[in-house]
Amino acid sequence: MLAKVRNLLFRDSHLNWSLADQAVVSGVNFLTGLMLARFLGMAEFGRYSLAWMIVLFANSIQIALVLEPMMSIGPKQPADTQRAYYTALAVQQVALSLVMAGLIAGGVWLAGIHMPGWRTDGLALPLACVVVTFQLQEFLRRYFFCIGRPRLAMMSDTLRYFGQIALLVSLVVVVMAAGDPAFRVTSITALWAIAAAGAGATVISAFFFVRPRFEWDILCSSMGRHWQSSKWLLPSNIIYWFSGHFFIIAAGFFLGAAAVGALRAAHNLIAITHILFQAWENIVPARAARLYHSQGAHALSEFLKRVALNGGLVTAAIIVAVNVRPGALLGMVFGQEYAEYGHLLLYYGVSYMFLFFSLPLKAGLRAVENTKLIFMAHLAVTVFTLATFHPLVTTFGLEGAITGILGTMVILVTVLYVGLRRILGRMEARESTAAEEDAQEEQQAGPAAAAAGGHRFIERSGS
């Protein structure tokens, strides 16, 4: 019995550890958002959310320049150059983190001078430290996945994310015990706690990194090879980040930090679907690619339809459940000051339905190796965002911002769907034509083969 259990747990250990790791990351991020929304208050939570978007923007650049190239190039490295290659990447990562931290700290400091209404004073240093520790820990966890050691990645994320929760809980307990209104949890103290957790996880994870071996030639060649991949990933990632966050930034600029707090609270509640989305993202693209390779475009199309139907029903059920009493639910989870914004859950719910449908569409485009259409879809979303954010937010306020977010998802899915349908339609037509030609050849070959066989029988009988 124990052997069967062990076989079940470790049969697909890499996938199991990856899914468990994602559950830790998504679950703790949800709990972090919940805690901060309750204890910071809506305006201060909005301030924190705007600061965290800067961290995510820096992470999108890190993904394009370091992480995604490493995940595709690193496993191909010969054994004799692996140490030098990963050492070179570590050097690049440290340099990138420091440059990003410096730029962000400088930008936040200047924003505090020229736009005092944003209340960025005191955020520059903790935000810079969060960027450095976030990126270094993220680099190490991706490195562990890259070398096929997902348990170490799980260890690193457990240290970081559970350490983050532990520090934030301790901070809240200390503040509540103090009973001094002047002594409270703020965006600054929350960022320092997150930076400390990331630093601890980074230091411990670094002990499991490859023994460094620096070679100048490997550093230069790896930078050049990575850039060949990054030069398209970088603009695509930046465009994707802006399309997903620009309306929230605009809400903060025109409506104030409290508006951002309301939007992010509604988003965090709907974002519980991210765990399911990530599970589908880990499975669907690989199966789609295998089906297309072995059975063709029609089989791929049918598979994507099943995924869209089954996953869409599950996502819809979650969204309907959340929207039964949205105001009461939002108030219960995040605090009563959020209850009046329950209607935002419906907007976010519909947008997340479209977000889900984008997953199988992107998987299909990757399977047929037409990722250019994904870039074009993100570009269309960005054009829409830049053209509409000002009139929507300034005219309709919070409802305009959430309508803009929903519009980006509709445009994304529409472009992906129309493009993929045309591509698969052409492929299925070619497959159908080829099948008909094969059938005609078999029909034509049948009588001739039968006649030849009868002629040979007569000859053999006459002899």
- What is the domain total for the residues? 2
Report how far apart the termini are.
70 Å
Low-confidence stretches: 8-12, 454-463
Total beta strand runs: 0
Q: Count every helix, treating DSSP H or I runs of 4 or more residues as helices.
A: 14
Rg (CA only)? 27 Å
Helix content: over 70%
Overall average residue pLDDT: 82
What sort of overall outline do the alpha carbons produce when their principal axes are compared? globular
Structural class, by secondary structure, is mainly alpha
Order of helices and strands: HHHHHHHHHHHHHH
Question: How much β-strand is present in the residues?
Answer: under 5%
What attributes does this structure have?
single chain; about 85% helix; mainly alpha; globular; 2 domains; about 475 residues
Short account of what is shown:
The chain has 463 residues and is an all-alpha fold.
Describe, in plain words, how this protein is organized in 3D.
- By secondary structure, the chain is an all-alpha fold.
- It has 2 domains: 12-227, no CATH class; 272-431, no CATH class.
- The protein contains 14 helices and no strands.
- It has helices at 2-10, 13-40, 42-73, 82-114, 124-146, 150-178, 187-206, 216-255, 257-270, 273-295, 297-322, 326-334, 344-367, 372-462.
- α3 (42-73) runs antiparallel to α4 and α10 (273-295) runs antiparallel to α11 (297-322).
- The chain is globular.
- It starts with a helix and ends with a helix.
